[in-house]
Amino acid sequence: MSKKLTSRAEDYSKWYNELVVKADLAENSAVRGCMVIKPYGYAIWEKMQAELDKMFKETGHQNAYFPLFVPKSLFEAEEKNAEGFAKECAIVTHYRLQNDPDKPGKLRVDPEAKLEEELIVRPTSEAIIWNTYRGWIQSYRDLPILINQWANVVRWEMRTRLFLRTAEFLWQEGHTAHETKTEALTEAKLMNNVYATFVENFMAIPVIQGVKTESERFAGAEETFCIEALMQDGKALQAGTSHFLGQNFAKAFDVKFANKEGKQDYVWATSWGVSTRLMGALIMTHSDDNGLVLPPSLAPNQVVIVPIYKSEEDLNAITEVANGIIKDLRAKNITVKFDNRTTHRPGAKFAQHELQGVPLRIAIGARDLANGTVELARRDTLTKEVVALEALTEKIEGLLADIQKYLFDKALDFRNTHITEVDTFEAFKTTLETKTGFISAHWDGTNETEDKIKELTKATIRCIPLDGKEEEGVCVYTGNPSKRRVLFAKAY
Question: What is the pTM of this model?
Fold first, then answer.
């Protein structure tokens, strides 16, 4: 298969789909809407998972695991949550198959094996978790409960795209229980900030922290905090959410506790999560027409060494030098791969590692051995330089830090130049079609106006920025009074 990608300018969606497959990140499976995450793609997800898991534990959270299946009666207990996910639910109705008497060699559902109660394949775990918490919580001494789980969920999406929207996806979901409203709100904001820190510092993606409008909130939440990022095509992507659930789930599942005054009260709750959708954000923020561009902090291999040789003697000599480089780099916790495959020529190896976004590539040939140098190439800028062996480790350390910062600064500059303030609906529509990006505009605060703007332009309110200032104005659509600007965009 040709490694050349469709250009982003020609067809951004096609470029994305081709890149995911050709870079060996994932592929469609035999199950409609589901994906196979391949080893290279999973290695990136594992690095994300490891760093996030560390951050969760540093903030006092513990990992647990809850069942994949949720009895329908439990799922229905919190009405808003059930209504919000109802159309996306997969349901288990039977527990056994049998041979089909009319079709030899085929199986059918055993009509005698119908479940007494249907099971929902979890689209999210609030119901099963809060039913469990009811047995864990009796007193304020049992609080807070700070639990996270790494899991898969199923949401029966009609239109799917690898990583961005699949019927089954991997994620983490935090579910916490608190004594007071203040504690729960503090937790929801804290975890949103953890997500922002991770995405900016490790993924090199700038985000805007904000709250969702009522119509965009998580089903069953009283407030949804979010981080919003901007992709290269000018569309927004919701990178993570953290929900203040109030006492809604505690009331639905009758989770009460004896407070310090000895009175019964309902528990206050949060939930929060990020998913393999972050893989899509990573791809679409940094990558180019040549393939992936990975920030060093998340690259499975931060450095790759490619030998260029004519004889086995040359390869042996290069291998000896490469092993020394590998030892020095690993001592600095830099991940490095020696690509000594004999089945591929150097040019093919260069193309593969460029396509897969390896941040730094070292090429060593016979002339380099004689000169005590190597050729060092950056993936982000596609520049090369000759570096002396004795200075190589220090040079690589510096370049990896430079690449991480360069990618963030580049994305930040793009994001900042694609936030446009508008005051008329005509300017709103023109900006959306010609410049794209975030549109900062006044909104009168009503669901009706929000819905009408979405109907006319396909743009949604991505968030009400947390750092936004109060500013008297008039709604961009109705002309009614408004006290602050919100961010609109077309979104994934």
Answer: 0.96
